[in-house]
Amino acid sequence: MTLDDVDKDIISRAKKIKWLVLDVDGVLTDGKLYFSNNGDEIKAFNSLDGHGIKMLQNSGVTVAIITGRTSKIVQNRTHNLGIKHLIQGREDKLNALEELISAHNVNYEEIAHMGDDYPDLTLIRRVGLGLTAANSHWIVKEYSHWQSQFNGGEGAVREACDLIMLAQNTFDQALASYL
């Protein structure tokens, strides 16, 4: 990914981002709900997304998760990635975001949110940078500032992390540690 084909307004918005707030189902996962014969929930996460999250956090951007469902799997994945802000089981995502804003002295313009369906619209419409995956609901695509070329659970979050780091000129430094 390069910024050559990215709208200047999106680059300007991405430069200001201090927090990336993510949904889970349909963003960090493919959106499908898998259950074992015992009724246990199973989720698959993309390692590219996970590494992008770690790189973004190392660049100075805080990552948080706000999800309407509650899952021990999500709690474990969040811990695994070093994400310190996890809010689960909250249908009113805007209220949850406002709690984070109040507690951490951040404003809407400094927040990016990546979501895929109606419950994410209130956040996407208020934050500085609304993001979505390629397979998100068409209404969410209409309200988002930027759409990944990848589906949820298949690298969309990684591409969003890269976008923010490229706009903030932290991508090359993050990449240098691997070269």
Automatic annotation (TrEMBL):
Its EC number is 3.1.3.45. Keywords: Hydrolase, Lipopolysaccharide biosynthesis, Magnesium, Metal-binding. Mg(2+) binds at residues 23, 116. Its cofactor is Mg(2+). It catalyses: 3-deoxy-alpha-D-manno-2-octulosonate-8-phosphate + H2O = 3-deoxy-alpha-D-manno-oct-2-ulosonate + phosphate. It is an enzyme of class 3 (hydrolase). GO terms for biological process: lipopolysaccharide biosynthetic process. It holds the Pfam family Hydrolase_3. InterPro entries: CMP-NeuNAc_synthase, HAD-like_sf, HAD-SF_hydro_IIIA, HAD_sf, KdsC_fam. It comes from the Bacteria. Substrate binds at residue 25. GO terms for molecular function: 3-deoxy-manno-octulosonate-8-phosphatase activity; metal ion binding; N-acylneuraminate cytidylyltransferase activity. Belongs to the KdsC family. Homotetramer. NCBIfam families: HAD-SF-IIIA, KdsC-phosphatas, PRK09484.1. Catalyzes the hydrolysis of 3-deoxy-D-manno-octulosonate 8-phosphate (KDO 8-P) to 3-deoxy-D-manno-octulosonate (KDO) and inorganic phosphate. This is 3-deoxy-D-manno-octulosonate 8-phosphate phosphatase KdsC. It comes from Candidatus Endobugula sertula. The lineage of its organism: Bacteria, Pseudomonadati, Pseudomonadota, Gammaproteobacteria, Cellvibrionales.
